[in-house]
Amino acid sequence: MSALSLPIAELARLVQSGSVTAEAVARESLKVIADRRGLNAFLHVSEQATLDRAGELDARRARGEALGPLAGVPIAIKDALCTLDAPTSSGSKILAGWRSPYDATVVARLRAADALLVGKTNMDEFAMGSSNENSAFGPVKNPWDETRIPGGSSGGSAVAVAAGMTLGALGSDTGGSIRQPAALTGTVGIKPSYGRVSRYGLVAFASSLDQVGPFARDVSSAARLLSVIAGHDPRDSTSSTEGVPDYEAACGREVRGLRVGVPEDYFGPGLDPEIADQVRAAIARLEADGARVVPIQMPHTRHGVATYYVLATAEASSNLARFDGVRFGLREERPGADLGALYDATRSAGFGPEVKRRILLGTFVLSAGYYDAYYAQAERVRALIRRDFERAFAEVDVIATPTSPTAAFPLGERVEDPLAMYLADVYTLPASLAGVAALSLPVGRTRAQLPIGLQLIAPAFAEARLLTVAAACERSSA
Ligand code: GLN
Questions:
Q1: Using a 6 Å cutoff on CB, does residue 134 contact ligand 1?
Q2: Ligand 1, atom 4, residue with closest C-alpha
């Protein structure tokens, strides 16, 4: 049996015990990555570094050392996360070839857990997008139908896992960028609560929303990854000191007695009826397992898209001002080169059209005459969306909704229509605006065999409860 088809805990155990060598796993993962190059999931493959690292792990084990919880597990890293041993571009030409002088905290934690970091994954430029078509390095293809998008912006990470190149991946989710590609590729993706996971070393998009989280093929594998990356980081002032519970143990608990809220506001027009049916069927299976299904109201859901695109673009316009072509990018590639010439060269490599659109929009909503009408107003609506969640969580333990209104759509379909593209995140944005915990897990297929995702949302720092319900769904969908 292929090592790459195992749950993470099982593979780690085999490597820890020496039944499988890390080197064999590394070779298998690198081979699948090479065989599936056409999916364009990776921007950089760390071939030699991965083999060297695997050799070290095997040698340490042979010396009798105990290996960590991700021993020999191949993991892919979204290119928005800084890595010492591979370039970091965030899907942008403006950063192409740049090497970070440090590892993101989450990357350092994966290394400390003895994972194999096989490479950096393709993504929408600066994490702006829902289809991966905004990457400066070409779109990623959905492995279930290569004429379709994999979702975005963490599309490369989702595809690495869905196509069996790696057992896990890290992505970032600002408004849906982990959950939506997880839904569209049939993987599990977790957007942790704001503050649960360090963002030190994550290229910033919208700082009041960005979170790092894992992808895996099953719930308990995602739980193991989350337990490795979660927890306080003194280098990130927004990271919480809240303790990290045993997420894997949570996967084995019963759902009996838990209250599952179902907001009708998430099942309105625009939702593909096939998805509505399967999501409702998954909720009915939870009820059959002893959960109590409670209809709830989340009346401000419909303002999520407008609110998000004011706040996220405002924050992005301020975060991206640092990419002025002087401090990052080509200069790293050509040390000592004339600064003025490099400035011009970087500028012409420039930002792609979606990033430009967002900088313009964000600068506009923050400008003196419009600040109150747009930015301040959006902050007020954000408070109402947050209150929807507070009220809901007074009555229920988790909320269940579709993750995406449609299954994977064809490449090119929405490129010319930014508003249609923005609607892809209509169900994921509210949880981001509220800063609560959310995940997506696969619950079925459309008639065309495209994956369908169920979104589960829990209060901030209730990831364990989320995983309990997700694991129960997974067992009942099998
Ligand atoms: N699709 C949304 C956007 O384009 C969310 C992206 C994300 O979560 N990074 O902004």
A1: no
A2: 129
Q: Which residues contact 161 (CB under 8 A, 6 or more apart)?
A: 76, 167, 168, 169, 185, 187, 215, 216, 217
- In the reported structure, the alpha carbon of residue 425 is separated from the centroid of ligand 1 by a whole-number distance in angstroms of 7
d(CA 173, CA 154): 8
pLDDT digits (tens, 9 = 90+) for 315-340: 999 999 888 655 565 545 555 556 56
**Percent of the chain whose pLDDT exceeds 70:** 94
Indicate if ligand 1 lies below 6 Å from the C-beta of 128: yes
pTM of the model: 0.95
Domain-embedded: residue 330: no
Domains of the chain: total? 1
Which residues does the annotation mark as catalytic? 78, 153, 177
Cα(385) to centroid(ligand 1), Å: 18
Q: Is 79 in the pocket of ligand 1 (CB under 6 A)?
A: no
pLDDT tens digits, 33-75 = 999 999 999 999 999 999 999 999 999 999 999 999 999 999 9
* Tokens 């979660």, residue located: 230
Nearest one of 214, 226, 223, 229 to 158, comparing CA atoms: 214
Distance 262 CA to ligand 1 centre (A): 24
Q: Does some domain include residue 65? A: yes
Give the CA count within 13 Å in the CB-facing half-sphere of 406. Answer: 18
Which residue shows structure tokens 């065309």? 448
Instruction: Tell me if 326 is assigned to some domain.
Output: no
| Among 177, 179, 215, residue to substitute to test ligand 1 (most atoms within 8 Å of Cβ) | 177
Q: CATH code at 125?
A: 3.90.1300.10
State which residues form the domain around 254: 3-305+376-477
Q: What is the distance in A from the centroid of ligand 1 to the CA of 429? A: 9
**Cα 206 to chain center, whole Å?**
14
Ligand 1 pocket residue status of 315, Cβ below 6 Å: no
| d(C-alpha 451, C-alpha 189), whole Å | 13
Q: Has residue 324 been placed in a domain?
A: no
